[in-house]
Amino acid sequence: MCTNHSYFFLDPVQKHHLLPEKAYFNSFLNEIRGLTNIEHRNIAKLHGFCSSSKHTFLVYEYLEQGSLAKIFSIEEENKELDWENGVNIIKGVAHTLSYMHHDCSPSIVQQEVSSNNVLLDLEYEARVSDFGTAKFLQKGSCNWTPLAGTLGYVAAELAYTMRFTEKCDVYSFGVLTLEIIKGKHPGEFAAHLMSSTTTGDIELKDLLDQRLSHPTQEIEKILTQQHVPDVTPA
Predict the structure, then answer these.
(1) Cis peptide leading into 106, omega within 30 of 0?
(2) Distance CA 201, CA 197 (A)
(3) What's the confidence (pLDDT) of residue 233?
(4) Residues 19 and 73 in one domain
(5) What is the DSSP secondary-structure string of 5-49?
(6) What range does the domain containing 99 cover?
(7) CA of 221: how far to CAs of 86, 183, 226, in Å?
């Protein structure tokens, strides 16, 4: 959509056929509430919304490159995602989660960290989107939640504890980071790697996207450190 030479993205909110009407509407309100109360350079800007009996839309800023998942699905676009851009995306998402977990009151758990919900501008600057399942952490509360998130990014323990914490986002962030390094979703390897006690036996070259040239020493140093304060959400 274009108005006065400004471009916006209309995101139709899909109604899940298993969700009751009230739960669906609460999810919609939750996303609006979350996005109007937080502001960060790496969070997609919400400009407005529309709700009627037939249609529900969120109006976001327009991000030219679309989602990270879309880029992974197109061979030519995937090749444009070099190591420098990939690391910048990782940093952008990490800074977003750190802001939501530590600088917001109450803290916010996004619960939908995935390549589908990371949007990119022309400079490959990341914007995190989709806060429909986001939860506000309440002190003194058990913070129970129905299972939410995208299959392949959800921490396994959430399936049986049904208790959401910041660690749920950090697990999803780890999967996303592996996806950027490999150039595709890591599949079951992600769960194996994050639960393994023998990660020292895994070499970086076995994880790298083979379509790209080997990363520089500076990039390699970032990718091989287990915790980098300016990159990894605590």
Answers:
(1) yes
(2) 9
(3) 61
(4) no
(5) TEEEEEEEPPPPTTS-HHHHHHHHHHHHHHHHH---TTBPPEEEE
(6) 66-219
(7) 14, 19, 10
Shared domain check, 50 and 25: yes
Taking the CA of residue 179 as centre, how many other CA atoms within 13 Å lie in the half-sphere pointing to its CB? 26
Do residue 16 and residue 74 come from a single domain? no
Sign of CA dihedral 142, 144, 150, 153: positive
My answer on whether 48 and 106 are in the same domain is no
6-65 per-position pLDDT tens digit? 555 555 554 443 445 666 676 677 667 767 778 899 998 888 877 776 677 778 888 889
pTM for this prediction: 0.78
DSSP state of 215: P
How many domains does the chain divide into?
2
Residue 207 shares a structural domain with residue 105: yes
Please check the confidence at residue 5 and state whether its pLDDT lies above 50: no
Same domain, 48 and 95: no
The whole-number pLDDT of residue 228 equals 47
In angstroms, the CA 105 to CA 125 distance is 26
> Could you tell me the two tokens for 143?
């913070």
